[in-house]
């Protein structure tokens, strides 16, 4: 006997009304549910798979921090570029919000329930955010963490670099650049509530303790990835600690720190290491204000995030662990744009 609508509904775990809407290409059904129904119908021999090509694209939302962070502007552009290059199977929206206010971000996540098939997020590791993610996943909306991971949440995956290894690399480079003598080092971060920034700081501190105990960290400042706040904090540092020998910027705000160093005439004396190749950091490497930039590839991250999130939204569980490469960039090996 040929399978019935009721058989498909039982197999897919949905109502007969939902099966009817899916098979007749009506709106109002999430893409993941559509795939479940088509899979059940194919398994039972009700259809041969052809109607699946007409299913609606999965709706994916990317929640990225706003502000002056050039790397995140680049990442947002690459997400839209990667979506446009696909065959129409995804529909992507990018939101830029103030992620330094976790309650605001959590509220945004709550508002997206029922509107999307999957969410990728760069966010503070905060209780309000974690709870919002748990509620989304409980409602069958997969959540993927991007660039900075979040602990103890049922996210479908993480796409980004090993931030602790990146911090260790920064510590190794700064220690070697500062030679064998002692010296004072300052740290700047967007927010250590970002797990990625916390892991970079941890890796950096461990490397200095292991390999360069003669160096001492005299200051750690959070500047919310803001250029103006970074500039003010760097000016204060140079005034209070005039013999500081090295600066490691864990997050964004490189323009502000570089400006303070240039105005003080210290761009060639103080070792300055930061993250991400952007038009600004390229200029600072060429001028010698920055000594090294630790880069990750935002184009690869955007493509991999869409691939993983789209698969999760369709109920496909994969075992692929993406490897986003960490690369140390100097003036001599600045990559082509």
What global shape is seen? Answer: elongated
Largest sheet: 6 strands, mixed
Q: How many helices in DSSP terms?
A: 12
What is the CATH C-level name of the largest domain?
Answer: Alpha Beta
Helix content: 40-55%
Q: How would you summarize this macromolecular structure in one to three sentences?
A:
By secondary structure, the protein is of the alpha/beta class. It has helices at residues 5-12, 16-23, 31-43, 70-84, 102-112, 127-138, 163-177, 195-211, 227-240, 254-263, 279-287, 298-313, and strands spanning 58-65, 90-97, 118-121, 143-146, 157-159, 183-189, 215-222, 244-249, 271-275, 292-295, 327-329.
Features:
337 residues; alpha/beta; 434 Repressor (Amino-terminal Domain); Rossmann fold; 3 domains; 6-stranded mixed beta sheet; 5-stranded parallel beta sheet; 12 helices
General description of the model:
The protein has 337 residues and is α/β, with parallel strands linked by helices. Helix content is 44%, strand content 18%. It has three domains: 50 residues, lambda repressor-like DNA-binding domains (434 Repressor (Amino-terminal Domain)), CATH 1.10.260.40; 130 residues, Response regulator (Rossmann fold); 133 residues, 3-Layer(aba) Sandwich (Rossmann fold), CATH 3.40.50.2300. The strands form two sheets. Strands 7-6-8-9-10-11 form a six-stranded mixed β-sheet, with helices on both faces. It has a five-stranded parallel β-sheet with strand order 2-1-3-4-5. α6 links the parallel β3 and β4. α1 crosses α3 and α7 crosses α8.
């Amino acid at each position: 006997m040929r399978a019935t609508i009721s058989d498909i509904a039982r197999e897919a775990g949905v109502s007969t009304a939902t099966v009817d809407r899916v098979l007749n290409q009506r709106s109002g059904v999430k893409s993941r549910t559509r795939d479940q129904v088509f899979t059940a119908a194919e398994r039972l021999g009700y259809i041969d798979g052809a109607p699946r090509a007409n299913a609606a694209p999965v709706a994916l939302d990317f929640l990225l921090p706003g502000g002056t962070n050039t790397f995140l502007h680049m990442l947002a552009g690459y997400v839209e570029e990667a979506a446009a290059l696909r065959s129409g199977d995804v529909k992507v929206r990018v939101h830029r919000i103030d992620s330094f206010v976790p309650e605001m971000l959590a509220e945004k996540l709550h508002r997206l329930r029922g509107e999307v098939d999957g969410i990728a997020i760069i966010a503070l590791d905060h209780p309000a955010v974690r709870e919002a993610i748990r509620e989304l996943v409980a409602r069958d909306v997969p959540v993927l963490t991007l660039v900075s991971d979040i602990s103890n949440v049922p996210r479908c995956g993480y796409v980004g670099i090993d931030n602790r290894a990146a911090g260790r690399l920064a510590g190794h480079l700064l220690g070697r650049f500062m030679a064998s003598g002692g010296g004072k080092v300052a740290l700047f971060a967007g927010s250590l509530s970002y797990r990625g920034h916390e892991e970079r700081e941890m890796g950096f501190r461990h490397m200095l303790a292991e390999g360069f105990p003669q160096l001492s960290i005299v200051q750690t400042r959070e500047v919310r990835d803001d250029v103006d706040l970074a500039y003010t904090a760097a000016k204060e540092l140079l005034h209070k600690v005039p013999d500081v020998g090295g600066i490691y910027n864990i997050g964004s705000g490189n323009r502000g720190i570089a400006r303070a160093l240039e105005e003080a005439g210290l761009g060639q004396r103080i070792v300055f290491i930061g993250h991400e190749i952007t038009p600004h950091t390229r200029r600072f490497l060429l001028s010698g204000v920055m000594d090294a930039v630790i880069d990750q590839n935002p184009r690869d991250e955007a493509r991999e995030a869409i691939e993983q999130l789209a698969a999760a939204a369709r109920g496909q569980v994969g075992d692929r662990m993406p490897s986003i490469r960490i690369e140390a960039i100097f003036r001599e090996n600045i990559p082509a744009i």
